[in-house]
Amino acid sequence: MSLAAIELNDAAVALARDGELLSESPGFALMEEGTLLIGDDARRRARLEPRSVSTRFWSRLSNDPVSPATPAGVTFADLAREHVSSVWASAGEGVDGVILAVPGSFERAQLGLLLGIAEQLSLPVCGLVDSALAACRSPAGKGLVVHVDVHLHGAVITGIEASQTFRRIFAHDIEGHGLVQLYDEWITLIAELFVQTTRFDPLHRAQSEQAIYDRLPLWLSTLVAQTSMGIEMEARDGGVHVIRLMRERVVECARDFYARLTADIGELCSGRPFALQLSHGAARLPGLAAALQPAADGPAVTLPAGAGALGALERAAGVADADWQNTLTLSLPRDVIAAHGTVETTR
């Protein structure tokens, strides 16, 4: 039986099949001259046509209209359907079943809409699982695992009780501040540094602003490992301008967001020791692991890209069912989790 899984994090909707991550697609949609661009195609034009781009169709999944970014009558659910359709195309032929891995921020009505979208697209859904539960790695012992994931417009903190079963005990949604807002702050910082250092303003032209937006994920990933890096940009006259971007300045822009995550984790855990696991996207934010780790029992574990989709396939024995009846899996036997390795979390 050939299985696929789709992880619904709007920062990178991931599709895996037969143990391999096949695609990741950000939750961006843009209507250009009557043609709908979705995923990376839309993201690559987000700063060129900012009034035409939509990035909230997953976080606001509903039958509400999207306008003014799209023609009248187009709803958030319509864009989500087109996004799923685009991602599903990468699965290829011969898929017998698909597992949907969904974040804890999804409400019951949104789950219903998602299943309706899957039915419209004739997806052979055979299971539905919490994405943090699917993604998490088994700690060496028992206790609380805290999984942190960052979305386009928020973050989700998930608590998983690890004993004989792995059970989701809380899912906390932080709304209104996610990657979109962080990227805005970091782009502003970079532009200010260029103006102060070289008098070149990359925000003066949409093309140079888009160039920063496209390269920012790589720069951030580099600054997770390095304290600084050189950045160069070419001006319209052919001149090349160079600045030095310091990690501490990047972290400073995100300090309030990191502090909110830290405070909310503290309240949710109520003093209990916990093992910290970060999604691939969260771990690529400079300074986030360092901000959250002091409260954790041991070093943070960085999960691979598409961990929710890959984990859903690994744990298919506890999730997938040919007679599945629209139930959401929130617990799994320990042996199903541990069968794919453990991680040491003690100091």
Short description:
The chain is α/β, with parallel strands linked by helices and 347 residues long. The protein has helices spanning 40-43, 76-88, 108-120, 131-135, 179-198, 206-225, 247-253, 255-269, 280-283, 288-292, 307-314, 316-319, 334-338, and strands at 3-7, 13-17, 20-25, 29-32, 35-38, 53-54, 97-102, 125-130, 138-139, 143-150, 154-162, 165-175, 228-234, 240-246, 274-278, 301-302, 328-329, 331-333, 342-343.
What does this structure look like?
By secondary structure, the protein is an alpha/beta fold. Helix content is 35%, strand content 28%. It contains 13 helices and 19 strands. The strands form 5 sheets. Strands 3-2-1-7-8-17 form a 6-stranded mixed sheet, with helices on both faces. Strands 16-15-10-11-12-18 form a 6-stranded mixed sheet. Strand 4 (29-32) and strand 5 form a beta hairpin.
Task: Break the fold down into its secondary structure elements and pairings.
Elements: E1 3-7, E2 13-17, E3 20-25, E4 29-32, E5 35-38, H1 40-43, E6 53-54, H2 76-88, E7 97-102, H3 108-120, E8 125-130, H4 131-135, E9 138-139, E10 143-150, E11 154-162, E12 165-175, H5 179-198, H6 206-225, E13 228-234, E14 240-246, H7 247-253, H8 255-269, E15 274-278, H9 280-283, H10 288-292, E16 301-302, H11 307-314, H12 316-319, E17 328-329, E18 331-333, H13 334-338, E19 342-343
Distance between the termini: 41 Å
Examine the coordinates and then state which fold CATH places here, giving the name of the CATH topology of the domain at 3-131. Answer: Nucleotidyltransferase, domain 5
> Widest sheet: strand order?
3-2-1-7-8-17
Helix % is: 25-40%
Uncertain regions spanning at least 5 consecutive residues: none
β-strand number = 19
Main pleated sheet: 6 strands, mixed
What is the highest CATH level, the class of the domain at 3-131?
A: Alpha Beta
Q: Could you say which overall geometry the principal axes of the C-alpha atoms support? A: globular
